[in-house]
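Homework help board

Subject: predicted structure for assignment chain

Our instructor gave us this sequence and asked us to write out the predicted structure in token form, then describe one feature. I got the tokens but I'm not sure how to describe them. Can anyone check?
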Amino acid sequence: MTASVTVATGFLRSPSVSKSQNTSFLFTRQRISPKKSSVRPISASTSELPENVRSFWKWLGDQGVVSAKSAAEPAVVPEGLGLVARRDIGRNEVVLEIPKRLWISPETAAASKIGALCGGLKPWVSVALFLIREKYDEDSAWRVYLDVLPESTDSTIFWSEEELAELKGTQLLSNTLGAKEYLENEFSKLEQEIIQPNKDMFPSGITLDDFMWAFGILRSRAFSRLRGQDLVLIPLADLINHNPEIKTEDYAYEIKGAGLFSRDLLFSLKSPVYVKAGGQVYIQYDVNKSNAELALDYGFVESNPNRNSYTLTIEIPESDPFFGDKLDIAETNGMAETGYFDIVEGQSLPAGMLQYIRLVALGGSDAFLLESIFSNTIWGHLELPVSRSNEELICRVVRDACKSALSGFATTIEEDEKLLEEGKLDPRMELAIKVRIGEKKVLQQIDQIFKDRELELDVLEYYQERRLKDLGLVGEQGEIIFWE
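My token output:
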């Protein structure tokens, strides 16, 4: 599904899920950003901790994973559950280590009772199916772990229609709806090909809500980008929360050998900063995600303006008479038929964006640049304005797209900021408002960039002038030099 805003020549559109809707749906880290209230550490051995968490901690002890010497333990924290230091923990010090036999991964699903059914499934779908089946099996070996998993997160895929209405106009809304549509299609396929023909393997039945739950768990809690492991749930380690004050993902976790004479692997979680005894242990989930991505993945946003972004989608229309030539040039320079450009609040336009949009807009008297003699130099020429008509067109197209996108919002930035000032908002409502503000600020920023450029059209130097200067036919003041 691609919701688009078609403007001017039709080569710029506002995307929904076209950028992120591939079947891998990268699974990354967990849930909630830390709040300002203090941590309330609770010993995992006391009755103050919820019974299911105490049972989980005991299970880990029985498995030889934790002991009285463990550096951290589960605790009730402002985010819900988290890991709290039992003693001072140094920077880059190991907090916990979990052996591979306690990981949940595609390998786990393949080795389970439903393993024979998982061969042709996407890795994440096989793990999702495994989680759902184990969840309804009271005798599951994973029972104590499954009992500490939440029934939902604040990810926007779990929002009601009324809550989603607060995201009107945002790319987050279209991405959320696209993700839900993708999940519905995946579940329908799974139901027809696996669940229905094998009802004896799923006596409790499986619903779309079950599938959504499993997806939410994986999207918010699974670790990725690990050595030989693209998608894995790590019990206990997945209680670690995110802190925006931590600016690096380096050294937070890794997979290593269990010992010189052991073939087993360990997931090793380290603290990226010093943590005093009783303090919560945090990591940085992803320094590059936008607030919209954080909201979709984990259900929180940050106040950092660098998290506010908007994706401009620019494509070469197949109806363009120079489609083939333009596509060849784009691909030669690392681009494609469609270009996605993330504009971040307070930052300049992404590298290559102006070149790409100038290429897409090329036509008329400027089309000579598409000839083969310019194939090795055209990308360099596109770094600078080509012609007044070309530059004027891209300014108009981008500004029209920004105005169209801004008109889709039901509120202004000022109205949203007033709502935040008044306070007493539901967490999801507050998240929606912050995302709306962020996207609108970036759209206004983009519009201002190209508005300023429109004011410079009469003084910009274009290709023909630069070429004449290179040939020595124009002076420094723009005068034509006549040869005698």
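Reply (TA_rk): Your tokens look well-formed. For the description, you could write something like this. The domain at 305-468 is CATH 3.90.1420.10 (set domain protein methyltransferase, domain 2). That's the kind of observation they're looking for.
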